[in-house]
Amino acid sequence: MGKSVLVIGSGGREHAIVKSFKKSNRVEKLYCAPGNAGIAADAECVPIKVDDVEALVNFAQRKGIDLTVVGPEASLAAGIVDAMYSAGLKVFGPTKNATRIESSKQFAKELMTKYGIPTATYKSFSDSAEAKEFVRNGKLPAVIKFDGLAAGKGVIIAETYDEAESALDDMLVNKKFGDGNVIIEEFLQGPEFSFMCFVSDDKVYPLELAQDHKRAFDGDKGPNTGGMGAYSPVPFISEETKTRALNEIMIPVAKAMTDENTPFTGVLYGGLILTQEGPKVIEFNARFGDPETEVVLPRLESDIFDFIEAVLEKKDFIPQWSEDAVLGIVLASIGYPDKYEKGAIIKGLEKLDEEVFHMGTLFSDGEFKVNGGRVLMVIARGEDIPEANLHAKEAVACIECPVLFHRSDIGHAITD
Length: 416
Ligand code: AMP
Ligand code: GLY
Known about the structure:
With about 425 residues, the chain is of the alpha+beta class. The protein is built from 13 helices and 24 strands.
């Protein structure tokens, strides 16, 4: 019988997950909670918030959902997976406890130190005076991270001591992101890449690599964002490096989580950097990356339902991937990642084919409108990254909306 799937979330990542399930031969009915105006074309959207655990569990029970896939960290942190397990429902995501690999940088750092997993050296602070003194006695740039969920915006790479001090004041005195310590860590150098793996306890299934662009503006300038574009594959990371990252980082972390009685199920995302000494960890996430998912899942040729089912049953599964390169460009509201206006009309979407993911839109009075910081992600395929880049730029040019901006140099490490 055809399966029913519930995807939790409302962004571009969830739109990509939904589209991937839409291609599955096994899936008959797709729901997304709460979804967005674009997702509504591909799944039935249900107006339940991502952290309303009780309502989500009730919905899944009532509809007899065969598999729930969790997108955002807020839903994981609210304990959706624990609650689904208790209700006897099948869910792909980590428990609240295991989500700490993402939500607590200190937990992740301590785990890596204990199990010898390569990462930057670090120190944790709750007192701003002590943190400032530590920075003053150390080298620049200083890497300052808020220890909690900050939607990708809680990291400052300070080039000057003044900049470092004002970041520490923001986080520890003004509590810009709420209560939490800061971590100050060694600055690592090298190309970054995102390595997502499907994980079930100590069994690890690697996906294809991607690269994200976190800074707001061209030339990797401006503030850190949730991600302004991405591409997959990553040609400058060799198979040998990928294998090293799998064997020295991803598999040992999954094993460590099991050994620590916080076994991990779901997507383990390694934000990695290739240093002179080999791949090291910048951060872990406990979920699909955004915008990496939007360029990796379109390359998956195997049935995603079969794949996740095999993972949950710890069966061997070798996914098939398209040889195509996929590159995606995010269109964001001017002002993002700080303040921005909602409500502007977006025109030209009908000129694009399938491959546009809605990140923050709504549909009213017959028009798509801006409803978020990151608004759309347009992806395109090509034989290689430069070709995909050309096609993605042509697609972006179809979209008319005066309050949107985008980076024009996604993939610059390859196309320059
Ligand atoms: P995170 O949110 O921890 O992934 O950090 C955001 C971005 O800051 C990363 O993608 C890196 O570009 C940069 N970053 C974080 N930690 C370091 C580090 N230790 N050394 C160099 N760059 C870093
Ligand atoms: N692209 C980085 C993230 O998903 O956190």
